Each structure stands twice: as structure tokens, then as C-alpha cells.
Amino acid sequence: MPKKVTYYKSLKVSYIKFKSIYNLKSSFLIKIYYSLIIKKISLNTIIKHIILV
Q1: Predicted TM-score of the model (pTM)
Q2: Would you kindly state where each structural domain of the chain is located, as residue ranges?
Q3: pLDDT in tens, 1-53
Q4: What span, in angstroms and rounded, lies between the C-alpha atoms of 52 and 46?
Q5: Per-residue model confidence (pLDDT) at position 1
Q6: In Å, what is the CA distance from 32 to each residue of 27, 36, 50?
Q7: pLDDT of residue 46
Q8: 5 DSSP assignment
Q9: In 3-state terms, the chain is what percent helix, strand and coil (to 5)?
Q10: Which of 8, 16, 24, 30 is spaced 20 to 30 A from 39 at the CA atom?
Q11: pLDDT value at position 6?
Q12: What ranges make up the beta strands (E) of the chain?
């Protein structure tokens, strides 16, 4: 039973970390998307950005 509890706790922690990272990434992607609309950057640049982040 204690093993399960620690497992769920670690799951929760990793979920919170994932959420914060995801929020950062999504905001970054939104910025790229808007800059794409403005500057019409090529797809390759976006893919490179996503790989770098």
C-alpha cells in the first residue's frame, strides 16, 4: 500500500511538472504561430523551434 501512495504522489508531481512545461510550450507555440501569420515563416523554421524547445 505505501508503495502505491508514493507512486501516486510521484505521478502527481510529474503531472504538475508536465502541465507547467506544457503551458510554457503552448504559449511559445502560440507566439510562433502569430509570428508566422505576420512574417509567413517557412515550416522548417517552426519545426526547428519545436525541436529546440
Answers
A1: 0.38
A2: 2-52
A3: 567 777 788 888 888 888 887 888 888 888 877 777 767 656 677 677 777 65
A4: 10
A5: 53
A6: 9, 6, 10
A7: 67
A8: H
A9: 90, 0, 10
A10: 24
A11: 79
A12: none
How far the first Cα of the chain sits from its last, in Å, is 38
Q: Which three cell numbers stand for residue 34?
A: 502569430
Which has the closest alpha carbon to 33: 23, 47, 46, 51? 46
How distant, in Å, are the alpha carbons of 9, 25, 27, 40, 53 from that of 50?
A: 30, 9, 12, 17, 5
Nine cell digits for residue 20: 507547467
Q: Which of 43, 52, 46, 48 is nearest to 30 (CA)?
A: 46
Rounded CA gap, 32 and 10, in Å? 32
